[in-house]
Amino acid sequence: MSAVPTTYSPLVRELFERLPHAGDLASGPGVVVHGEAMALDRGAWVRYEARIEAGRVAECAFRAWGCPHTLAAAALVASRMQGERVAAPSAFDAQGLAAELDAPPEKLGRLLVVEDARAGMLARAHALQSA
Amino acid sequence: MAGPGGSPIYLDYAATAPLDPRVADAMCECLRDPALQGNPASAHVPGRAAAARVEAARAQVARLIGARPGSIVFTSGATESVNLAILGAARAAPAGARHVVTSRTEHRAGIDACRQLEREGYRVTWLKTGADGAVDPAQVAAALRPDTALVSLMHANNETGAVNDIAAVGQACGERGIVFHVDAAQSAGKLPIDAEQMGVSLLSYCAHKLGGPKGVGALFLRHRPRPALQPLQFGGGHERGLRAGSLATHQIVGFGLACDLALADLAFESARVRALRERLWSGLQAAVPVLRNGAADPALPGILNVRFPGVEGESLLLALDGRLAASSGSACSAATAEPSFVLRALGLSDLAAQASLRLSLGRDTTEEEVDRASRLLVASVRRLRAVLPAGALERIA
């Protein structure tokens, strides 16, 4: 049995404590899109929900199952998604996210799930805009 | 036990129990006393004074398990005792007896010692436990062979608290003249033990699980028939040649007193802690979906191993961090998230094992702490479940 959790960076602790943007979007204007990815064997499941207005992400929320790094990463990404242009989102990769959160290498697989959920959500939004 | 300044509620007694202040006092007194500074192996007056304290403690340590003082060999702890018993008994067995029986849910000390025997050419039968976490004595009897040198089992499991029927296994071994070792690190001082009556040949236990200091343990060797044992270390012939090294008088004095205190309160504390454990279980059950790993009885009074469906174990531990000290179902660092082999042996999936939590109560645990721990757990579980993706509960058992 283990009593000692992984050491967590102050940013992970802060995000895990608050879990900003966790839950569901309140009803509002615009179109709502979803993006979801899971890898149960890796211990992560992330679902994003975003409201798209005028080609931008107006609001973003997430739901997730996973370790503290997964939840913190999902929250951080949701925060940064606000205002993203659907047609030209900013560059993103799980490696950079892992470095920012000071996550151990073993957690990279879980952060890739976060990246996949984000990419899926943006792809749906882009497809909707293009239609 | 919750210390000053809002320190966490301590529910990790199965890992170690806080040092009893009375034991600490006795040890300090021993360390300070100029008359007790001799080596207990020395023949002069200070040596004999220290030896007298060691022998008094040996009697206390023996009494806890219904043994005679001459049956006790002091070691550095249960891990050393287990290694000495398993490696020492197997290596001392007759040339043709190179088979060992043990279970898959032993403490790592037992598992790793048996793996070492496998590397040395011994055959080991790894028994499975039932869903309750206990080994069926009939299964043990069926595994015995003419070349079986040793059976080694825990009395009580350190993760689930499941209790093995030691007397039944002891009888089966005794009838065949097979050495029977019991790892009683978790049960000594928590459950009544009469090593002679239970048919045990060798029994390992230690001080720090019962309010004594870390770094001291004991190995019981049955008086008759005396099991053959090959020592693991050499250099001075201490402890009748079975465990070389100067004895740490103050550690042994602390161990002895801890045994006395545990024995004096055993029946009362066992009932009290069991009631607290069930209070904790009831509080959790009433508030959130929760499953118990292992049976409620027979089990150690202080261990409650639970899992919360849909809740990831590492996140639960961090949610409780600083407020509740307990152990997760991961074998080592949460980063590698290696699930507990004990829980997997009970049939739990990796995900379920990782979502498990061992809450272990002890001498200083109070009703108020248990209720507070229950509220903390419920709040943390609810918080983590509230952010689960739709459908996650069905997929994550």
Helical residue percent band of chain B: 25-40%
* Apparent shape of chain B: globular
Using only C-alpha atoms, the radius of gyration of chain B works out to 22 Å
Helical percentage of chain A: 40-55%
Strand order of the largest sheet of chain A: 1-2-3
- Mean pLDDT level of chain B: 93
Tell me about this structure.
The complex is a heterodimer of chains A (131) and B (397). Chain A has 131 residues and is an alpha+beta fold. Helix content of chain A is 41%, strand content 23%. Chain A has a three-stranded antiparallel sheet with strand order 1-2-3. In chain A, helix 2 (68-81) packs parallel to helix 4. Helix content of chain B is 40%, strand content 14%. Chain B has helices spanning 21-32, 45-63, 78-92, 108-119, 137-143, 166-176, 249-287, 313-320, 341-345, 350-354, 367-386, 392-395, and strands at 9-10, 72-75, 99-103, 123-127, 148-154, 179-183, 202-206, 217-221, 291-292, 303-307, 324-325, 327-328, 356-360. In chain B, the strands form three sheets. In chain B, strands 2-8-7-6-5-3-4 form a seven-stranded mixed sheet, with helices on both faces. In chain B, strands 9-10-13-12 form a four-stranded antiparallel sheet. In chain B, strands 1-11 form a two-stranded parallel ribbon. The longest helix of chain B is centred in the C-terminal third of the chain and has 39 residues, at 249-287.
